[in-house]
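Forwarding the complex inputs:
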Amino acid sequence: MKTVQQIKSGKNFNAVNLGTMNEVINYELPMGKDFTLKGKVFLSQALGLTGAEMSFQTLVPGQDSGFLHTHKTHEEIYVIISGEGQYQVDGEIFPVSEGSIIRVSPDGKRALKNSGTSNLTMLCIQYKANAFTEKDSPMEDGIILNEKLSW
Amino acid sequence: MKTVQQIKSGKNFNAVNLGTMNEVINYELPMGKDFTLKGKVFLSQALGLTGAEMSFQTLVPGQDSGFLHTHKTHEEIYVIISGEGQYQVDGEIFPVSEGSIIRVSPDGKRALKNSGTSNLTMLCIQYKANAFTEKDSPMEDGIILNEKLSW
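Prediction (whole assembly, two chains):
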C-alpha cells in the first residue's frame, strides 16, 4: 500500500510527494472494518490544509463513484488529469477527458465514471462555497514582494 | 492563443475544457499594456468559482515565478503535474517533480523554478486560510444519496 511521503515542512508550509499520477491506483482508503477503496487518497492531513480538502482518485475502466453525493456547505472542483469518462450533475451527463474541469455547487448531485479503456485519474478539491466577495480577488489578495528572488 | 472551452453548465455546475496538460503553454495572460505572460491561465471566471481561484502554469526550462509573493488571507496549494523543478518558501529550497504537492500559508514567501530540461506544468489553487473548523471535515460535509446511480 502506497503512502504519502513528506518532503519538507516549515513554519509556513508543508510539502509532500504523492508519487507519479499512475501510482495513485496503489493507494488504499480504509472505508470501515471490511472494505478498502483502492485508488483513492486524501491529503488534508499530510498537507495540514486549513480551508480545503484535496484528494486524488484513479478509477479503472468501467468503475464509477459508486453513489451520487451532495455537500452541505462545500463547493467542489474536479480536474481530470488523464483518461476518459462521463460526469453527471443533477442527471445531466457529459463526456470528460484530460483537462476537463468541473465546478459543482453544494446542492449538485454528482458522480464520475471511467468509460474509457485506460485508467482515469482525477483530482478533487473542496472548500467553503461563497467564501469570496468582490475584494477577495486573487489579484487583490496576493502581494508581490520587492525582494530579490535567488536560487 | 488558446482559450478555455465551455463544455456544459447548469444550475449547480460549470464544466470547461482546458485542453491537455501540454497545451497549457499555449495560454497567454495579459499583464498590462506591453506584456503578456505565456503559459498561464486563471479559471475562476470560466468555472464560476465562489470560494477559490485555480490556475495552471507551464514554466519552460530555466524559467521561474519571476518574483516572491505572499498573500493577505489565502492559503495556496501547488500541485506539480509534470516536469522537475525547485520550490522555495521563506528561503528554504527543495526539489519538486510530478506528484509533489505544497501547501503554503498566507505569510510564506514563495516561488517555483523549472530546473529540468522539459516543461514544468503546475496547478495552483487558493482559498481562505483557516476556513475549516473541526465540524468542516469533508466526511461530515458530504451527503451520500440513497438514489440509484445510472449512466
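The helical segments of chain B are 44-47, 138-141.
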